[in-house]
Amino acid sequence: MKLRVVVAAVFGTNCCVVSSGTDCVVVDAGAGVADAVVRLVDGEGLTPRAVLATHGHADHTWDAGELCARYEVPMHLHEADAYRLADPFGTLSPALEEALGLHRDDYRAPAVIEPFATPGGSAVLTFGRVTLHALHAPGHTEGSTLYRPDDEVVLTGDVLFAGSVGRTDLHGGSGQVMSETLRGVVRALDPGLSVVPGHGPATTVARELATNPFLAER
Description:
alpha/beta, Metallo-beta-lactamase, Chain A, three-stranded antiparallel sheet, about 20% helix, globular, MBL fold metallo-hydrolase
């Protein structure tokens, strides 16, 4: 498994291209990454099999529709966040919408959306030769999901950052649910995993368990 990160211009969202052989998936296609993703994918002779999102906020899904259309693949995200794709601004605060600097008329929703469920809290998703273990991790949004493509790395979206965690004050967020996720899902991750968060620098589970104040035992 191989992973490359393309950083979006808007909010610095980390868009990940995960590949195995010539098959790949794109995770968190934030605003302005489409051209760079196309150059990477086409330049390396990769075949996208799906576009995914760790959650449904606009800064993680804005270019998903464009990439889905170009490569004729569906959009996948947790069923609890699928409703957000119809109106990417509908669940954001006015201040955050303004900060994004995006315009509603420019949004292109994915033509085909295939939500997935996580019975028991997890699911195995297979797209060609790419397999992702999806762990439901609500709190930032109802459908926030961690993706683990192998035994070395986990994509944490806006659940876990280097030194911090995702905000819970937007529509669908919950501080109590986030605390449960941090205790029950994040703390259970293998400390040896590298972490690629939705924004900011990479880290490791071990480092966050040792230093992240939001993961301190209470």
